[in-house]
Amino acid sequence: MKTALPLLGFTLILLPRIFAADASPAAAPPVVAPLFSENFESGRLDPKIWTQNVTGDNVITVQRDKAAHGGYALRVSCPAPSNKTWAFIMAAHLPDALRSHHFGRAYLFVTPKPPDRHTILLMAGTPGFPKNKFLEIATTSGKWQLTWVDLTGSTNQEDYHSGGLVPLGRWFCLEWEFNDHPDHVSVWVDGQPVYDSGFTVKSTGAVTDLVGGFTDIAFGFRLWGAAPAPFDLYYDDIAFDTKRLGPLAPPPGSARVERDVPGALSVPR
User: Model pTM?
Assistant: First the structure.
């Protein structure tokens, strides 16, 4: 309803005031868990999800002396000089939505430093390690190395490229994008892009479907050469999804970091 009042030769129109039904702030959207995640807060590796593949004197533990968030993290240790050994936790049967293209995130602490030689940190690819196909994030001479690898034939095939620096002695957020169509890897550190590369089969020129699907994942290390001194890698808050995840952030007004799935494993579905 509106009311007209005469006022010095012109008419003042009074309009009714309209109030919103609910002026309270909009509720925050619910947090959607990644398709696959592990924060190690159970204090152990679930054998229904993870297997361990270890050679030499290397050691894998879920420990509580050093963690990015919460109380536990994974420690993968090379406790003595070693050569061409590995230590991985591995999970199979990734959700179908992640098999040709996915994004990942893990918090990583490298101490005191990795070997100068090619050292794999994580990989995603086909079953059958160490005779499989995969994309990897590795380090060499203190830099990132991104590699496509085919170890299934009589002759190993690979295409690798390196750049950017691997942070040492602190926790950092490592993010990646793995794509099999065409094959490409991008890497972010603490939310900032640091390196990316595509891959080509040198014998054929092929650039797509070089892996054939990401069904299996692995975290830890593989030494393609010698490690003259001991080193440790710590992993925490591993996650995979169809979209970029970004670093974990504390809720507004809090120093506490909000985890994807507080205190639990998000089981693949």
Answer: 0.85
